[in-house]
Amino acid sequence: MAEKLKDRQANRLAKQSTPDRRRATLYDEKSCGVVLFREKDGITLYLLLHYPSGHWDLPKGHVEAGENEHETAARELLEETGVSDIQFVEGFREEISYQYRKEKRPSRKQVVFFLAKTNLESIKVSFEHKGFKWLPYTEAVNKLTFENAKNLLRKAKKILEGE
Fold this sequence. Notes:
Blueprint: H1 2-24, E1 29-40, E2 43-50, E3 56-57, E4 60-62, H2 69-81, E5 87-102, E6 105-117, E7 131-136, H3 137-143, H4 147-160
Parallel strand pairs: 1-6
Antiparallel strand pairs: 1-2, 1-4, 2-3, 2-7, 5-6
């Protein structure tokens, strides 16, 4: 009887700890990115990148060993756009997650985005992209392909407007 009780307690503890173990390995990949904006004639313009598969999204990329999240976001922005002169906006750190297929297997990805300002207009897209656009908010939201990116832009606009 005592052994059955111990077994039940052990099973209950194992079930309780399973979510914690899952949380620790919830994502297969982690990336960081930037919601980049600039001001022109009193209008806030947001940078969108055009990917070869046809979608429009924000700059982002994988975390490399030894980097913190801001370093990854800044490096990826530089690699994908040539932009190095940015100022991060304090208080904006948004996480999104999604699943996609990688090598025919499902992969879970976490992406941490920051909001940053630049005064540069010139962009030099990497080989990973077909093009770019600087767009005002409404056009940018409509051009973005994925709902999670649209939500990021909505949050960025609220921060910039002081809401």
